[in-house]
Amino acid sequence: MNFGEQFLWVIYPYVALTIFVLGHIYRYNKDKLGWTARSSELLEKRSLWWGSMLFHIGILAVVGGHVSGLLIPKAFFESIGVNEHMYHMAAVYGGGPAGLVTLAGILILTLRRFGNDRVFAVSSMADLVVVLMVLVEVSLGLASTITNVLSIGSFDYRETIGPWFRGLLFLQPDVSLMVTVPLVFKLHVAVGFGIFAVWPFTRLVHVWSMPIEYINRAYIQYFSRDLKAKSFH
Ligand code: HEM
């Protein structure tokens, strides 16, 4: 295995995952008050609503697809009666629309961030970089799905990227599994790890607080009867 492959599929992912973990610890300790999605809703509402809704619905389904395609071994699906053809159909007819909805959402969000003067003016470099990275990543993901549909029979990411990814998590990465992977998938995986590396320094940290905040929410909300507080609205 040449050094380039070792670097891309062992060293780089571990560096990215280390920055991901340590970066979150650092950010949490240094910038608790800045731990937010930095909402710009007050500046522009309509395209934010559409972009955000489409992106979040799509990405939830896409995350589900990544868990079943990468973390769960193919043998498990076969043991419960889901054969290659059935899995492929689910990936095409479930994954395809999910990828398209995600792409539509992130496109709207990117155009809004760069195209709306007020939103652009309050955007940090991290905001601009991360939205572009996610746009590129989602486009590459969708291109991978299309390649997958077209290359049926000749390439199976559940026998290559999946076991490599699980090996990485269990500290036994097998680089040889990545060598024959088509370029578009390789680019998708490489940019994906880039996103993990910048994640703690961007608004993406909100991913970890939303659900936790929701679980811990007060079931009954108490509001002040103070008239001054009301007149604020
Ligand atoms: C770094 C780890 C990642 C790996 C190993 C990975 C792997 C894959 C694979 C193998 C596919 C093809 C699925 C198919 O054809 O059914 C795919 C699709 C996709 N990925 Fe990733 N991915 C990673 C990270 C990400 C990230 C961080 C995002 C989003 C920001 C993302 C978004 C997508 C999208 C939108 C698709 C298209 C899915 C669809 O059509 O439903 N991926 N990914």
Query: How many structural domains can be distinguished in the coordinates?
Result: 1
Instruction: Give the uncertain stretches in residue-range form.
Output: none
Termini separation (Å)? Answer: 64 Å
Counting DSSP E segments of at least 2 residues, the number of strands comes to 0
Largest sheet at a glance? none
Q: Considering DSSP H and I runs of 4 or more, what fraction of the residues is helical?
A: over 70%
The rounded Rg comes to 20 Å
Bound molecules: protoporphyrin IX containing FE
State the CATH architecture. Answer: Up-down Bundle
CATH class: Mainly Alpha
CATH superfamily: Transmembrane di-heme cytochromes, Chain C
What order do the helices and strands follow? HHHHHHHHHHH
Structural class: mainly alpha
Instruction: List the total number of helices.
Output: 11
For this structure, the quaternary state is single chain
Would you kindly provide a written description of the structure presented here, covering whatever features stand out?
Helix content is 72%, strand content 0%. The protein is mainly alpha-helical and 233 residues long. It has one domain: Up-down Bundle (Fumarate Reductase Cytochrome B subunit). The longest helix has 32 residues, at 84-115. The model has no long low-confidence stretch (mean pLDDT 91). The structure holds protoporphyrin IX containing FE. Residues 62, 65-66, 69-70, 91, 95-96, 98-99, 102, 134, 137-138, 141-142, 144-145, 148, 157, 161, 165, 185, 188-189, 192-193, 195 line the site of protoporphyrin IX containing FE.
